[in-house]
Design a protein that fits this description.
By secondary structure, the chain is an alpha/beta fold. The chain has 6 helices and 6 strands. It is about 40% helix and about 15% strand. Helix 3 links the parallel strand 3 and strand 4.
Length: about 200
């Protein structure tokens, strides 16, 4: 995080849950930073309307920002990109460029917003959605084939800094700034029958 190298970092957590498995797992990692003293959670906020994550988050963030004057919050962490987009709107409308925004997940819309608001939205972390799809299908194929499969499988998220983005970057060419994007090697591809299928498809 730019200018956030010193700990602890004062953070407003933008979250939804519990009961949303991806968010719950992200919360586990977040709590590790809190327990380690690297993060001080200043506030916890969520959307006022779950049916409208972006708009609901904007409204709840706009309501809470006046409570925290300049210098009292270092960053806002959005556990989901729709939450981050609502937060961005609230920060922009309040003229609050003193608080950095960091998020999880990425899309073409996110990239455009990051590029157009580099003074607020500083970074995101994400896994290539295509890689997630590949993993799911290969895991399902392995189950159908009677292979022993793990109860859980983690894909390493890639950090994307706004400072590395430029106009023209999108989900199809983001690998040019996130070198480990689309790293599918080793994702349930060690089975011989899987290798034969891949070889047949490649012909």
């Amino acid at each position: 995080m730019d200018n956030l190298c010193e700990s602890p970092v004062r953070v407003i957590r933008v979250w939804v849950g519990p009961g949303f498995p991806p968010m719950d797992r992200r919360q586990v990692v977040y709590e590790e930073y809190v327990k380690a003293g690297k993060i001080i959670e200043v506030a916890l906020v969520g959307p006022v309307d779950y049916a409208d994550m972006r708009g609901g988050t904007q409204n709840s963030r706009a309501a809470i920002l006046p409570r925290y004057p300049v210098g009292t919050v270092d960053a806002i962490w959005g556990a989901y990109d729709e939450l981050a987009k609502g937060t961005l709107q609230a920060l922009e409308e309040a003229g609050r460029t003193d608080i950095q925004l960091h998020s999880i997940d990425i899309s073409n819309d996110d990239i455009d917003l990051m590029i157009s608001h580099p003074n607020i939205w500083k970074s995101t972390a994400a896994v290539d959605p295509k890689l997630i799809g590949i993993s799911n299908i290969r895991l399902l194929a392995a189950k159908f084939a009677g292979e022993s499969t793990p109860d859980t499988f983690n894909l390493d998220a890639q950090g994307v800094k706004t400072s590395d983005l430029r106009p023209g970057i999108n989900m199809s060419n983001i690998i040019t700034v996130a070198s480990d994007w689309r790293q599918e090697k080793g994702v349930f591809d060690s089975y011989q029958w899987m290798k034969e299928i891949k070889a047949a498809v490649a012909k």
